[in-house]
């Protein structure tokens, strides 16, 4: 990765009018929402970019069920051609973090190409990191959608009744920190961290005999009930 892009990263997500199930997935479709947040040295800076966009075409019913963004809501929003320079200036010379770049980056490149301004492909002025690829390496053979990853990392996403570009960018930011740091760079309160780590930092005295604690009768009964439940539900 080019060191020029290492310190500044942007987390990006989009919503669209739909996608083609065969052939070119973005052909004749449009972006209707884009959300991008800025992080420097793995910390959110407070800067972000967020637009709803008038696609000049109908939002497909299947897409509406996913993001809940209606044609009426978008009717007075700006066009992509009105704000494209803001997007380029926000993402250029940065590392773009995106979940499924085949979708998001392809749609953006397509929108830029439709302007007929000879704008370069995004990969030529920024680097792209696909968290879907990272997730598949970490969890091969498992479902790796944002919802599945939130469940896996115990990240609350109760507000996510619908997909939304800015909210999904924020969720992806949290997931990216977990997936790329093994929790080493996620900030916790120092006092709490010391309390958690203090037993691990104490030296183990190999000459001191270990104390063996036997389970009580009630604990054995509780354990057996748990085993019976597992057998009933999974065997």
From TrEMBL:
Active site, renumbered: 163 (proton acceptor)
A GO cellular component annotation here is: cytosol
Catalytic reactions on record: DNA(n) + a 2'-deoxyribonucleoside 5'-triphosphate = DNA(n+1) + diphosphate
Q: Which Pfam families match?
A: RNase_T
InterPro entries hit by this protein: DnaQ, DnaQ_proteo, Ribonucl_H, RNaseH-like_sf, RNaseH_sf
Where substrate binds, per the record, is at 13, 15, 62, 67, 168
Keyword terms = DNA replication, DNA-directed DNA polymerase, Exonuclease, Hydrolase, Magnesium, Manganese, Metal-binding, Nuclease, Nucleotidyltransferase, Transferase
Q: Where is the Exonuclease domain?
A: 8-185
Gene Ontology MF terms? 3'-5' exonuclease activity; DNA binding; DNA-directed DNA polymerase activity; metal ion binding
Claim: Magnesium is one of the keywords in the record: yes
EC number of this enzyme: 2.7.7.7
The record's free-text note on cofactor binding: Binds 2 divalent metal cations. Magnesium or manganese.
Where a divalent metal cation is bound, by residue? 13, 15, 168
Transmembrane residues, as ranges?
none
Needed cofactors, names only, are:
Mg(2+); Mn(2+)
GO-annotated biological processes:
DNA replication proofreading
Q: How does it assemble?
A: The DNA polymerase holoenzyme is a complex that contains 10 different types of subunits. These subunits are organized into 3 functionally essential subassemblies: the pol III core, the beta sliding clamp processivity factor and the clamp-loading complex. The pol III core (subunits alpha,epsilon and theta) contains the polymerase and the 3'-5' exonuclease proofreading activities. The polymerase is tethered to the template via the sliding clamp processivity factor.
As for what it does, the entry says:
DNA polymerase III is a complex, multichain enzyme responsible for most of the replicative synthesis in bacteria. The epsilon subunit contain the editing function and is a proofreading 3'-5' exonuclease.
Could you tell me what this protein is called?
A: DNA polymerase III subunit epsilon
* Name of the encoding gene: dnaQ
């Amino acid at each position: 990765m080019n060191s020029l892009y290492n310190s500044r990263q942007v987390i990006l997500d989009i919503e669209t009018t739909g996608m083609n199930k065969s052939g070119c997935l973005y052909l004749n479709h449009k972006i209707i929402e884009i959300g991008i947040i800025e992080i420097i040295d793995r910390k959110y800076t407070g800067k972000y970019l967020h637009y709803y966009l008038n696609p000049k075409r109908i939002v497909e019913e299947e897409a509406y069920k996913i993001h809940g963004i209606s044609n009426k809501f978008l009717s007075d929003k700006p066009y992509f051609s009105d704000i494209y320079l803001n997007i380029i200036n926000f993402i250029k010379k940065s590392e773009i973090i995106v979940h499924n770049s085949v979708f998001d980056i392809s749609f953006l490149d397509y929108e830029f190409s439709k302007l007929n301004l000879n704008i370069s492909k995004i990969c030529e002025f920024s680097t792209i990191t696909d968290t879907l690829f990272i997730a598949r390496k970490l969890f091969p053979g498992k479902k790796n959608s944002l919802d599945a990853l939130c469940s896996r990392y115990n990240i609350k996403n109760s507000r996510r009744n619908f997909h939304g570009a800015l909210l999904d960018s924020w969720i992806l930011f949290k997931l990216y920190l977990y997936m790329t740091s093994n929790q080493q760079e996620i900030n916790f309160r120092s006092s709490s961290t010391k309390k958690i780590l203090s037993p691990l930092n104490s030296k183990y005295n190999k000459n001191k005999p270990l104390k063996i604690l036997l389970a009580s009768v009630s604990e054995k009964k509780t354990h057996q009930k748990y085993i019976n439940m597992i057998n009933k539900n999974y065997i």
